[in-house]
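User: ok so my PI wants both of these folded by tonight, can you help

Assistant: No problem, let's get them done. Here's the first:
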Amino acid sequence: MRRFLAVTLVFSMVAVSGTASGGIVRHDRSLRDHKSIMQARSYDEPVGKIFIDGGRSTGSGTLIGDRFMLTAGHVTAGASSIRVRLKGSDYSAVRSVVHPGWRGNNLFDGVDLSIIELDRPVAGVAPAKLYRGRAESERNVAAVGFGLTGNGIIGTNFGTKTKKRWTQNVANVYNENLLVTDFDDPRTMAGNVFGSPSPRKYEGLTTFGDSGGGLFMKDGGRWTLAGVTSFIWNTSRGPWGNYGDSAGFTRVSSHLGWIDAGLRSHFIGSSYAPTSHVGGDFRLATLTVPEPSSAVIGFAMAAMSMLSRRWR
C-alpha cells in the first residue's frame, strides 16, 4: 500500500478529523460526459501530474512559464525529488520554492503555493495565463487535476485511479487570499454553503490527487488561472467529497508579485497578512488507504453547521 499525505484540521470549537483535495461529480452525470467536454476545451492542457520522491505520492500542477509549474506548497514541501509529466513527456525539477508564508498547516491563510523550475522548456504546451483582476466572486470556474473520482452521494471512491479530470463550479471569495467552492446537490438546496444553491450542469468537487491543480476562469474571453487547489472542507459531515462539502483554492491574484518574481528566478519574501479563522489547533496526520496509486493532498474538515447558516 502507498500513502496519501494528508493535513488534518482540528478545531477547538468542534473536534473533527478530515481529508482533502480528482474530480467528484454529480451522481446524475457520467465521467464520459466530463471527459468529452474537457477534450473540447484548451484550459486543461497546462495541467500536469507531479510525482514526488519517485512516485511515493502524486499531485497536480499548472505550467505558467516555459519551464515553471505552479502547484500547492504541501505538494512539494520536504520532497527530495520531483518529476512532472505533461502531455506524455517527463521533466525533472531543478528546484522548487515554497511560498515563505506556508507553514504546513495554515490552510486558511491562502498561502499554500510552490513554484517548480523544470530542467528544460516544455514542448507543445502553452502556459496558462494568470488571472490579474480581483473579480473572482460568483464567477463560473473549472477545476482540473489528476485525482481520484466518485460522486456526490458516495463521496470519494478510493478504488479509482488518479487521472486528469475537471469539474465546474462557482467561485466565492472567502478572504483576501482564499477562494472557495461548494458541491451543491441537484436534489435539494439544503446543503448549500456558499453562494447560489443551484449546481452547474457538470458541478463537482476536488479530491485526493487534485492538490496543486488549477482553478480556471474566463477573463475577456480567455481562460485564466485564478486558483490553486489546496484542500476540501467536510462541511457536510458525511463521506469525504459528497454533496455539501466545500473546497479551498489559493487565490492567484493575491500572490502575483511573488509568482512573477519566481518566473524571473528572483524569489521574494512574503508580503501576505495572516488571516484569522475560527481558532484552534492544527495538526499534521498521515492517512493510509488501500490504493495502488498515491496522491499528495492537503485537507481541512470542519463541522461548521453554525457558521454555514451565515453563508447561505
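One down. Here's the second:
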Amino acid sequence: MSSSLSSTNSPRTTSAPTDALPSPPTRLPEGQGRQGAQPVRIVLATRNAKKCRELQDLLLPHGIAVASLAECPPTPDVVEDGDTFADNAAKKAREIARALGAWTIGEDSGIAVDALGGRPGVYSARYSGPGATDQSNNDLLMEELAGIPAERRGARYVCHVAVADPTGAVRLQVEDYCRGRIAAEPHGTNGFGYDPYFLIREYHRTFGELGPVVKQQLSHRGRALRRLLPALLPLLGAGQAEPDGIGDERGISVHH
C-alpha cells in the first residue's frame, strides 16, 4: 500500500447543512452492509444521473448511499481546469464538500487513445467543444481515427476518485483504468460517453453491449471504487469490505 500523511486542515465553509441532503433511497438488502442500519450518505460531485447510478450500484451494498448534486441544495459550478484527472477529481471533492458541509466523492474520468497521444484525456466530456454531447464527441473521435487500423486503436478508460470530508480536506484518492480498443462502429445502447465504441477484446463486446453487473467488474470506475473501499468504509463508519481480495489498496493515497 502506498500512502502519504498530511496534517493540513482546510477551513470549513458551509452553505447548506448536512441534514438538508436527501435521505438514502432504501435500506440495505438483508445481510449486506451494516445489519439493519440505514446507509451512510455521501455526495457525488456530479449531475450525471447515469454516473451516479453506477456508483450507487457499487456502494449501496456496502452501506453507502450516493446522492448526486441534482438531489442537493444548489452549489457553485466547479471549473474543471486541471491538467490531470487527479487535479479535477480533488477539486470537485474539495469545493462541493465545503459548500454542502458533507462527505463528498469527486470523480473524474475519461478515455485516452493511444494513436491520439492520450487524447481526449481530461477533455473527454467536452472533446468536441462547447455544447458537446456523447454523439458529437464520438463523431469527432471517429473522424480523428479514420484510416487507423484496429491493431493501432488501443485505448484505456481512466478513473480517478477523491474523497473529501465535510471541511473540504481530501482524505482519500485512488486511480485505476481499463484497457480496450476503439471499435469502428458503435455497438449497444448501455452506458454513456464512449461506451458503445469501447471494445473489451476478451469479451468481444463493447461497454455498450455489456450488462451493468459485468461492466461493474471490468470498468475503470468499478476497479477504482473497489480499491477505495477498504479505506473508505472505516472512514465513514459503514459496512466492511469484502474479504475476497478485490479491494486491493495498492496506489491509494491516504491523508489524515
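Residues 42 and 66 are 5 Å apart (CA to CA). The two ends are 16 Å apart (CA to CA). Good luck tonight!
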